[in-house]
Write a structure and sequence with these properties.
The complex is a heterodimer of chains A (149) and B (148).
Chain A (H helix, E strand, L loop, with lengths): L27 H7 L3 E4 L11 E3 L3 H7 L5 E4 L4 H10 L3 E4 L7 H10 L3 E3 L4 H10 L12 H4 L1
Parallel strand pairs in A: 2-3, 3-4, 4-5
Antiparallel strand pairs in A: 1-5
Helix pairs in contact in A: 3-4
Chain B lengths: L6 E8 L8 H12 L4 H21 L2 E8 L3 E9 L6 H4 L9 H5 L7 H8 L2 E7 L3 E9 L7
Antiparallel strand pairs in B: 1-2, 2-3, 3-5, 4-5
Helix pairs in contact in B: 1-2, 2-5
The chains are: A alpha/beta (149), B alpha+beta (148).
């Protein structure tokens, strides 16, 4: 079930959007479908290609290890999640366990142009399904997707 | 070396204003982009600035971050009024933290702040005076000028 809670969607304005060469094989929209996630702040372009995925509740880990244009799976529902995603240039954030998001977080997401989705799944289940679907781990120290092939 | 900074910005940081944590860094990121700094440098500066900003938010009463953009480098200065750091060497140890419980609820406070900053910056200077505050000076060599 997908509910559109907010009329405005997020249009990313990035100079270096993911090229086909870098894509992991999943679009943001496909990842959202796999996770049975609902829109909190929907992306303007669900066809955005994801470079990979990183999962953490610790934002210091995201700052240290995540790579740009990847999907963040997290249980942390504070403004800092959005600010971290903006700093790291992540494609979108998926909140796990169906956690509610405060209006401040939603406002921050609109301000920083970070799409947010919510899945009823646990972080473990969400990551398992995304990995099974071909979305690769993508972090510092791990070869980029094209190097796997 | 060109000593005249082409762009200078200052952003205030409020201690204990948890919900504002990260605003100064995201504002600074926009300023770097407007100044046509390359994306790789922007990311390194922004990550370091965000960690430093959260340190101020979590530990100090108030502070500010200053960014100076030169043709070959970006310099960041973060200063706060607060308790200072008791043992800087210990604080640089990955995993060691003196952050309050609230930090964990914000996704920080796991003792990775200063080590993360050190990993991103080309030069790092830190001074602390007990009961007065901390001054952090970071230098990032630019990897190229954006062609935007």
């Amino acid at each position: 079930m997908t509910t559109h809670r907010h009329s405005s969607s997020i249009r990313r304005n990035r100079a270096n959007s993911t090229s086909k060469k870098e894509r992991s094989g999943l679009t943001l929209g496909e990842a959202v479908d796999i996770l049975k996630a609902e829109d909190v702040v929907p992306a303007d372009d669900p066809g955005t290609c994801l470079t990979g995925c990183f999962a953490a509740d610790l934002m210091s880990d995201v700052l240290a290890f995540a790579r740009q244009d990847s999907l963040l799976v997290t249980g942390l529902t504070t403004d800092q999640t959005v600010r971290t995603a903006a700093i790291m240039h992540l494609a979108a954030v998926v909140i796990v366990e169906g956690k509610r998001t405060a209006s401040e977080m939603v406002e921050a997401a609109r301000e920083e142009l970070i799409p947010i989705y919510r899945t009823p799944l646990s972080k473990y289940e969400a990551c398992g399904l995304l990995l099974q679907a071909g979305l690769r781990p993508y972090r510092r120290g791990v070869p980029s997707p094209q190097q796997h092939r | 070396m060109d000593e005249a900074a082409s762009v200078h910005h200052e952003f205030p940081i409020l201690g204990r204003a948890y919900f504002l944590g990260g605003r100064a860094s995201t504002s600074m990121k926009r300023a770097l982009r407007e100044a046509n700094v390359d994306e790789s440098t922007i990311r390194r500066v922004s990550v370091s600035c965000y960690e430093a900003e959260m340190n101020v938010v979590l530990h100090a009463r108030s502070g500010y971050v200053v960014v100076d953009i030169y043709s070959d480098r970006v310099e960041i200065r973060v200063a706060d009024q607060g308790p200072g750091i008791e043992d800087i060497e210990l604080a640089m140890t990955p995993g060691w933290s003196s952050a309050p419980e609230e930090a964990r609820a914000l996704g920080f406070g796991a003792g990775m702040g200063l080590p993360n900053i050190k990993g991103q910056a080309d030069e790092m200077g830190i001074e602390s005076t007990q009961g007065e505050g901390v001054r952090l000076h970071l230098v990032f060599m630019r990897e190229g000028v954006s062609d935007e």
